[in-house]
Design goal:
It is a single chain. This protein is an alpha+beta fold. The protein folds into 2 domains: 65 residues, no CATH class; 221 residues, no CATH class. It has 5 helices and 15 strands.
């Protein structure tokens, strides 16, 4: 192709490139599109350099300088903006997802507590008494783990511990992998037939007959209670058994290894904590008052409880033909 004279209009300047002979003319205009430009070219062969050229061709060609700048990578500002957007998107997704997981775990634990409650009714109907707590300090690979503790004619040797999941045929842990604490009223753990009423029990005149198919009578009353806060208003009293899930934070719960999770500083969660009496070596609730706390969850309190009242247990026993 012959040498060409060309004028380029770009970057705010007009440049004349003379090849020394007559030839083609070309005007190049930078377009808004980053990687393209428009060329107006005279392709009519060798002619004089007079203007205008007789034949013009308009064509679109890549702007190599724009492409080069474009291929140089992202700027720090662009990267920062992308990271901020990704962070906002992840935060918007993970926050609700975490809340949904917590809600699902809570609902699963409530369902497990309901199943435990029904298993206790079934056990009482079959055995005429409620089961004794299991040893909380045994790891779940111990053959005695989850099996109810010993009892005598007056009831369980130990009235607090963990749920005897093996004896009842239910799950060992709540949705957070922690064992359920379990406390039972003494009189409702006596094996049938009942030999004698305890002092102050069933004091009517004349006294009722001793039951033969249950370790308690229609006049027997439980000694466990529920309050809405430590030292607060009573929610339920005269209970036969209380089962506690220590919630997501697990404060006071026993792990499957038999280790106890440290308790938080929340006074209401401390009320649901089991501690070992140094004098007797037996487990009891921290207040030694047989009062447990049930209330709406807070930042530091997330325990879930279930219990069985005396009238409800007596009704079930009558339906099963164990009383009166």
């Amino acid at each position: 192709m012959p040498a060409m004279n060309s004028w380029s209009l770009s970057d705010w300047g007009l440049i004349h490139d003379a090849g020394g002979r007559c030839g083609s003319f070309a005007f190049r205009f930078a377009l808004p599109r980053p990687a393209m430009r428009l060329e107006i070219v005279n392709n009519d062969g060798p002619r004089s350099s007079s203007w205008p050229p007789p034949i013009l061709e308009i064509r679109q060609t890549p702007d190599l300088r724009a492409l080069s700048a474009r291929n140089g990578g992202f700027t720090l500002t662009e990267v920062a903006v992308v990271l901020i957007i990704v962070g906002l998107l992840l935060g918007g997704v993970l926050g609700p997802l975490s809340a949904q997981n917590d809600l699902r775990a809570t609902n699963e634990t409530k369902a497990a507590l309901a199943e435990i409650r029904e298993a206790l009714f079934g056990y009482a109907a079959a055995k005429g008494r409620l089961p004794c707590p299991a040893n909380p300090e045994l790891a779940n690979n111990d053959v005695s783990a989850g099996v109810e503790g010993s009892y005598i004619s007056t009831g369980c040797a130990n009235l607090a511990g963990v749920l005897p999941w093996v004896t009842l045929g239910v799950g060992e842990t709540d949705a957070w992998g922690n064992r359920f604490s379990y406390v039972v009223s003494t009189k409702f753990t006596r094996p049938p037939p009942l030999a004698a009423f305890a002092s102050g029990e069933c004091t009517g005149t004349p006294p009722p007959s001793l039951p033969t198919s249950a370790g308690f009578a229609l006049c027997t009353v439980g000694d466990l209670s529920i309050a809405n806060t430590a030292g607060g208003v009573g929610v339920a009293s005269g209970l036969t058994v209380v089962v506690v899930s220590h919630g997501k934070n697990g404060g006071g719960a026993f792990l499957t290894s038999g280790k106890q999770i440290p308790i938080s500083s929340d006074n209401d969660e401390i009320e649901n904590l089991l501690i070992k009496d140094s004098a007797t070596g037996k487990w009891k609730n921290a207040g030694f008052d047989k009062v447990f706390i049930k209330k709406a969850p807070t930042v530091s309190f997330d325990d879930e409880l279930t219990w069985i009242s005396t009238p409800l247990l007596l009704s079930r026993m009558m339906s099963a033909g164990k009383l009166p």
